Amino acid sequence: MSALKSIKSALLASAIAAAALPVAAPVWAQAAPQLQSFAPLVEAAKPAVVTVVTRQALPDMVPSQFQMPENIPDPFRDFFERFGAPGMPGMPPAPEGRPEERQGLGSGFIIDESGVIVTNNHVVAGAEEITVILDDGSEHEAELVGRDDRVDIAVLRIDAGRDLPTVAWGDSDAVRVGDWAVAIGNPLGLDGTVTAGIVSARGRNINSGPYDDYLQVDAAINRGNSGGPLFDLEGRVIGVNTAILSPSGGNIGLGFAIPSDQAQEIVADLLEDGRIERGWIGVSIQPVSPDIAESLGLEDATGALVAQVTPDSPAAQAGLMPGDVVLGFGDEPVGELRDLTRAVAEAPVGAEAEIRIWRNGAETTLAITPALLDAEMAGTAEVRPAVVEVPQLGLTLGTTEAGVAVAEVLPGAAADEAGLRAGDLILSVNQTEATSPALVAEVVQAAQDDGRGSVLVLVEREGMRRFVTLETGLT
């Protein structure tokens, strides 16, 4: 028994000694910031955050005669037939419409003591009057210096008659996922509201425009926060709060801010001359899917597929063609569409650059000189009666003045699943120009006879072109 007691005593002593040893904390716990309060940041930054109020007159309402809805319930139909309604024969006319005014609310922040304010373009777009309310409650009429609808930035100017508090730009490139972020703004008209969270992701594309590169944050952002600043812990602006994703329209922790590095460059350009200059080469592009990559002999689904080349554009002059895959522009690799749009937009206008492409199973390089971006519009054509069916794809084709067009799409067929619809133009099949509906049918049949399970089709809709792969039904 004494030996057993000795063993137990030794084990107990060892356990006590082990418990007394210091335990190393996890690396993440050791690196955790000792944050006490956001109050000092808010006290310093909040005076430079403003409310932006916009007013826009709406057209007069036009009175019209009452028309009985076809699906109105019988009791209401009997009532109106017996007693009438405004605008019906024998009844007083409908009241004249009265002009209405639309009012908008947003946020902004002062970057220069003279009264230069940054906000979102969508906050002030279409406004006839813009009023800025400072943190002290004073109201000032604002001048629109310039705006950029592609990145959703606008610059305003007010004359407050005194130097105003300001905030400074931060470095959004240095922001890491997991860093703290603080938003100050005017959500739902509640001015000076402060919310905090973390940076959830970088480089987000929410399909709001060709230059999407958002910081995603979980700090509460709601309607009215648009145009307000997103701060780091040093009180520097790392983003411009711009959008949320929500099924209800309210905050669910998915907020998006334009990175400060992107916004700062645009603001500087707008302050210089009120406009933004971007490079343009004149192509419509689409993603390279695995099916498209395989059909073109690419090992990976990467790059930007050229669907359309604008005549007389820099791309046309450089020799780019539909079906080319852009792999690089200048010194920048092109892995996805926005890589190319950003590289071209940032390229100096009028300066020659190299563009790497994939064509006919090999990589080649062309010289191209970006021009100044200038938007263009295109029209549509009416489809004439169908003359040819392509059952492998589920299409009925007709002809238009613009060429071969889709007259009908069989529900559930390959074309339907790919999103084709009546009125789409068929420009080429397997890089063979579609000169007639009959030729399209021949090319599809030839592909099927060769044992190919899909064809690459170039489609145009409302002036925009894209490639789609359609299965031929071969099993």
From TrEMBL:
CDD domains named in the record: cpPDZ1_DegP-like
Superkingdom, natural source: Bacteria
Cited SUPFAM superfamilies: PDZ domain-like (SSF50156), Trypsin-like serine proteases (SSF50494)
Family of the protein in this entry: Belongs to the peptidase S1C family.
Keyword line: Hydrolase, Periplasm, Protease, Repeat, Serine protease, Signal, Stress response
Domain PDZ: 270-341, 393-462
Positions of the catalytic residues: 122 (charge relay system), 152 (charge relay system), 226 (charge relay system)
GO function terms (MF aspect): serine-type endopeptidase activity
Highest classification ranks of the organism: Bacteria, Pseudomonadati, Pseudomonadota, Alphaproteobacteria, Rhodobacterales
Coiled coil: none
Protein name from the UniProt record: Probable periplasmic serine endoprotease DegP-like
Pfam families: PDZ_2, PDZ_6, Trypsin_2
